[in-house]
Amino acid sequence: MRIRIVDAFTDRPFAGNPAGVLLLDSGTFPDDAWLQQVAAEVNLSETAFAHPLPPGGDADWALRWFTPTAEVAMCGHATLATAHVLHSTGAAAGKDAVRFSALCGILTAAAGEDGAFTLDFPTAPLTAAAVPDGIGEALGADVLSAHDTGPHIGDLLIELADERTVRALTPDFAGLVAHSERGIIATAAAEDPALGYDFVSRCFFPRLGIDEDPVTGSAHTALAPFWSARLGRLELTGLQASARSGRVVTSLRDDRTLLTGRAVTVIDGDLLT
């Protein structure tokens, strides 16, 4: 069985967010325990598993994502990585857009003429939340506001004072575990939008075995409405300021958020068991 490692939300190797991608030949998923074991072996923030669906339905491929320790309901970068593999291998021949059936609903990945892919995801329903006791201490920064992101991603979005504060965070990961269902999105406005991005973020998921995720597409379904409301524009660019870094172009469309980025295959090999 072929397994690929794809760097997503980047146009160069060894940047962005790496994802494992396995395209399955059968029309069903293998046992959940096996999927989880493979994801643990790959040991990236997510590994995507996809199998083809019969023609004529609402979707072309069924898609699931696993961290090294758990299945997740929504993942942006591994969806982008899967779309890249489908197009680069010819498995999506004749289709400009591929439809995926996932736990969070039907997702679409459309290939652009410039080589980028645009994902169509549900917009996170943001609601203001009380700042949890201890979250500032766990992050190591003063918190301006907190927002819940709804059931699909289950993160807590935390607004910080400025870009420098976001970049300088050295969280107590054990202290973050108690503060959200999935993880913490820390964000602030860009210090200098002339550099080509409007806001910065970092994402922490110690509950899922991922202290810091390099570039989190799903988080941008919450970041897009948050910053669009503040900046007064529907189309923005976010920079996830991790060590690997990556940019996500967002376009808000009411209850849908479009996420655009590129991907690069860095490993193509065989899974032997």
TrEMBL record:
Gene3D superfamilies: Diaminopimelate Epimerase, Chain A, domain 1 (3.10.310.10). One of its GO terms (molecular function) is isomerase activity. It comes from the Bacteria. One of its GO terms (cellular component) is cytoplasm. The active site is at E46. The keyword Isomerase applies. Pfam families: PhzC-PhzF. Keywords: Isomerase. Coiled coil: none annotated. Belongs to the PhzF family. PANTHER family: PHENAZINE BIOSYNTHESIS PROTEIN, PHENAZINE BIOSYNTHESIS-LIKE DOMAIN-CONTAINING PROTEIN. This is Oxidoreductase. It comes from Streptomyces agglomeratus. The lineage of its organism: Bacteria, Bacillati, Actinomycetota, Actinomycetes, Kitasatosporales.
